[in-house]
């Protein structure tokens, strides 16, 4: 099938327009997250996404887990197209700007029960273990590496803030679901156009309306990372504010007592 769009064209048609629209809404809407704090969190997510995902793609691409259509990419760095690195930047922006529309912070201390932390860490490590067991089979190679790659991040995030994420579960679910569904559609279109091709040999063959389940999981997991990371980032900053306010009130009380 002839390629109607290049990988860069996918960015121009499907990613940049919603980013611009959501960015405008976040900037204009008084109730949306905006400013130094959420944007600094987004910058942190972008850096982590590039650093953590680069070895992952550069491990799987040369092993034939997926490849790109002829003339679909401009150039590659290591084994990964430059458009893929650009996607590592654009996806966090897209997902974060949607989160900024619906995000909220609840009043919960950073100290959460140890049992909750252990459950969170154990859940992430169990995903790693499941992935390690799947890597040995060619048909579950992609799926296994997804789990091995995702598990450590989930263990860290859940170990730190599982209770808080549960308190905000409805917000987190909406923040994850909408960009994930959108990116599933974009991914399905790109595969249909031959912009990238997913290996039959390294996938299970299960699909969600034509989208390989491994691809669906990739976009789900990456959006989970972004949303959970930003939600907890804002939570930590909010708690720091509270402590500074209390410290300021305490200092004023001490000063006032000394003067009397």
Q: Could you tell me how far the N terminus lies from the C terminus, measured between alpha carbons in angstroms?
A: 85 Å
User: How many domains?
Assistant: 1
Instruction: State the secondary-structure class.
Output: mainly alpha
Strand order of the largest sheet: 1-4
Instruction: Let me know the average pLDDT.
Output: 94
Count of helical segments? Answer: 7
- Measured on Cα atoms, how large is the radius of gyration? 21 Å
Characterize the main sheet.
2 strands, antiparallel
Q: Which ranges are low-confidence, i.e. pLDDT below 50, for 5 or more consecutive residues?
A: 253-257
Which H/E pattern describes the elements? HHEEEHHHHEEEH
State the main characteristics:
mainly alpha, 260 residues, two-stranded antiparallel sheet, 7 helices
Could you explain the architecture of this structure?
With 260 residues, the protein is mostly helical. It has one domain. The protein is 72% helix and 5% strand. It is built from seven helices and six strands; from the N terminus they run ααβββααααβββα. The strands form three sheets. The protein has a two-stranded antiparallel sheet with strand order 1-4. Strands 2-3 form a two-stranded antiparallel ribbon. Strand 5 (207-208) and strand 6 form a beta hairpin. It is globular, with a radius of gyration of 21 Å. The model is unreliable at 253-257 (pLDDT under 50).
Task: Quickly describe the structure.
Pathway: Carotenoid biosynthesis. The chain has helices at residues 7-28, 36-60, 82-102, 114-134, 141-167, 169-193, 213-259; strands spanning 66-68, 76-77, 80-81, 196-198, 207-208, 211-212. It is mainly α and 260 residues long.
